[in-house]
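Subgroup meeting minutes
Present: P.N., E.W., G.H.
Scribe: E.W.

1. P.N. recapped why we're keeping a running log of single-chain structure predictions: easier to compare across weeks, and new members can see raw inputs and outputs side by side.
2. G.H. added today's entry (115 aa).
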Amino acid sequence: MRQIINDKNLIAYCGLYCGACQRYLAEKCSGCGANEKAGWCKIRACCIDHKYSSCADCNIIADAKDCKKFNNIISRLFALIFRSNRKACIDLIKEKGREHFAEEMSVKKTHSIRR
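Output recorded in log:
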């Protein structure tokens, strides 16, 4: 089993922190950036197409809540079930940077800022 580490490369395109995700830690997922099976994710595809490291880099839509790919019914349902706040994650990455975000998530041992 992997350990939770501070690694900015483990930040998912949508703002979750793969480095503290149970599937990543159990070695059942390689993390968003390396997960070739995640072709279904429209957020991942958009960020790759635009060469963004995450939605925090987007200069097309100023606020992630206004993005239809980021803020769709499925993501809202998952946010409710898992009590995660990806928008707060993206906002923190924009404000403090990827290094700070990865450090905070690894110290808190969580994959997302909680609702």
